[in-house]
Design a protein that fits this description.
The protein has one helix at 78-82; strands at residues 5-9, 15-22, 29-36, 42-46, 53-63, 66-76. It has 83 residues and is mostly beta strands. A 4-stranded antiparallel β-sheet has the order 3-2-5-6. The protein has a two-stranded antiparallel sheet with strand order 1-4. It is globular and about 40 Å long.
Length: 83
C-alpha cells in the first residue's frame, strides 16, 4: 500500500494542530491531530485512513509569540483511498 499525504512546508520547526472535516455529508465527520514538523520543517498528514470525498483542513500553530491559521479544501478520490 502506498501512503498518501497532505504536505505543508514551513520556514521553521512547528507543532501543528490540524482539524479536518469531511464536507457535503448530512453529519460531517471530524478528525483532529497534532503533528510536529520533521527535520526539513515539513508537516505530513497521512490520508490513508480517511474516506473519499471533499474535505477541509484547518491548521493552527504558534511561532514567535504569534498564532497562525491556514485552511485548505481538498478531495480524496476513490483511487487515492484504495492505493
Amino acid at each position: 500500500m502506498v501512503m498518501k499525504y497532505l504536505r505543508f512546508n514551513f520556514c521553521h520547526p512547528v507543532k501543528v494542530h490540524a482539524n479536518m472535516v469531511q464536507l457535503l455529508l448530512p453529519q460531517p465527520k471530524y478528525h483532529s491531530i497534532t503533528i510536529d514538523s520533521n527535520a526539513n520543517n515539513l508537516v505530513e498528514i497521512p490520508l490513508n485512513d480517511y474516506s473519499e470525498g471533499k474535505w477541509k483542513i484547518m491548521l493552527d500553530w504558534e511561532y514567535d509569540g504569534q498564532v497562525f491559521t491556514h485552511q485548505k479544501e481538498f478531495e480524496i478520490k476513490k483511487q487515492d483511498a484504495e492505493v
